[in-house]
Input
Amino acid sequence: MILSALTLQQASEKLRRREISSVELTEAVFQRISAADDKTHAYLTLARESALEQAKQADARRNSETQLSPLLGIPIAIKDNFLTRGVRTTCASKILGDFMPPYDATAIVKLHAAGAVIVGKTNLDEFAMGSSAENSAFHPTRNPWNLGRIPGGSSGGSAAAVAADECLAALGTDTGGSIRQPAACCGIVGLKPTYGRVSRYGIIAFASSMDQVGPMTKDVSDAACLLQVLAGHDPADSTSSIRSVPDYSAALNGDVKGLCIGVPKEYFVSGMQPEVENAVRAAVQQLEKTGARIEEISLPHTEYAVAVYYVVATAEASSNLARYDGMRFGHRAEAKDLTETYMLTRAEGFGAEVKRRIMLGTYVLSHGYYDAYYLKAQRVRTLIRRDFDNAFTHCDVIVTPTAPTTAFKLAEKTQDPLQMYLSDIYTISTNLAGLPALSLPCGFDRDNLPIGLQMIGKHFDEATLLRAAHAYEQATDWHKKKPTL
Amino acid sequence: MKLTRESVQRVATLARLRLTADEETALAGELDRILGYMDKLNDLDTSNVPVFVDSNDVSEILEKLRDDKVVNRPNTDALLANAPERDKTFFRVPKIIE
Output
């Protein structure tokens, strides 16, 4: 039995029965990393020493405490845009240098309280800006299913680490699809919760009105289990919700009878890979067979989502990234005066895509263009939100493809930013509307690359979303397939 | 609309980014194309549509205001540990007045 290949809950059960210890499990994960990470390059930083210490503590807690979290002793990988005290945090950018966070993000505090083991920090597109993990200032990550393909992005390192069994589960962040699109590319489950469900405190900010933390896991019930620990109000994040957190695992009863599932006609457009469309249509049929009611719906403003997103997200990013000025932390360039220091520090520290987005965001916020771009986009955003509100008056869940194609080749889209932006075409709307959505495997194309099925839920109704996804997963075995590295 | 190199330079100054001549030329073309794509938003009449606000309820936000209390986490040394230059409990920064 290869311990690193277990799901979170399988491992949790073995730990509970004391068939294995967390130290054994953690060592197995590091063994797997030694074998696989030279190929995938999923990690930026490994925290072996502290991980083994945490594993020892978890084993000790199991003997001394009674109320134990299912995460106790479970090795988890963290996208490198979460602050982790004492573990280098780079956001895959040179501008942060060897930044050592003085505190933990709230999500990390919660993982530690549950007794999880932090394996290390995973690669991403610099400042989470990208759809392929190629914008990392360090190195690209490769897709475990085919090393010539991208793992998706921006949480590409976390997705590859989960798919290659280099951890049992991982955390990602999702601003326009950064959890779901890599999950689809790597054949795993990725959940972006409702905006406000999980605290953003200690996440390096990209676009604050859309950034959200979520689980990336080997199956749907692991996602439910991890969300349970992450969800809830945090006084340090004023946008986190005070709504009570339901029991997500209890919601997974396999029953979708009578559930209304909407299929938006605007999501099946020319340009999508035929195998993706076929797999998603087959998944819809499967859900119908399981007892759900299928209804074709319309989300008429879908075609404007990418344009709205790249106005709003870059505007927020240009503002958030103004803090990287070389004064209090990170890289500082040597220059003759203060303004020159700022300009050179940022020129040397940021990569091409980050500069492009800062420029775009500064432009759409600048005098003379603010109304035409920024306010216009925020009005169309209202229309996109209303589309979903209308659909959810009669639907419980909406089903779409996660991405128009399976994982593309490395360097295929790096020269064409707009083409790269369009790979987020199906995931972006839910961030604009603040809705929860997940991706789970629903097939493979002829090159044996995974295809992702996206399910979108009502605000704060992750329970129904997870229930529908779990019912589909129970009826299929896509999630059990593993890449051969 | 064609984005000129001068407008790219103006925006770069606002964004405090020193660009090379090559970067300016490349960005003028790229941004022009992306902004051109964004112009499709003008197909829509939004004169009666309000600007988007947070998807959470405003009433909820009022319920969860925290006490106005200084917590000061983390401590000064921890905060200064990442400074490019420090002097005791201060960040050292380049001189701004001659």
Q: What stands out?
A: Residues 83 and 91 of chain B are 7 Å apart (CA to CA). Residues 59-91 of chain B form one domain. Strands of chain B lie at 86-87, 90-91. The two ends of chain B are 43 Å apart (CA to CA).
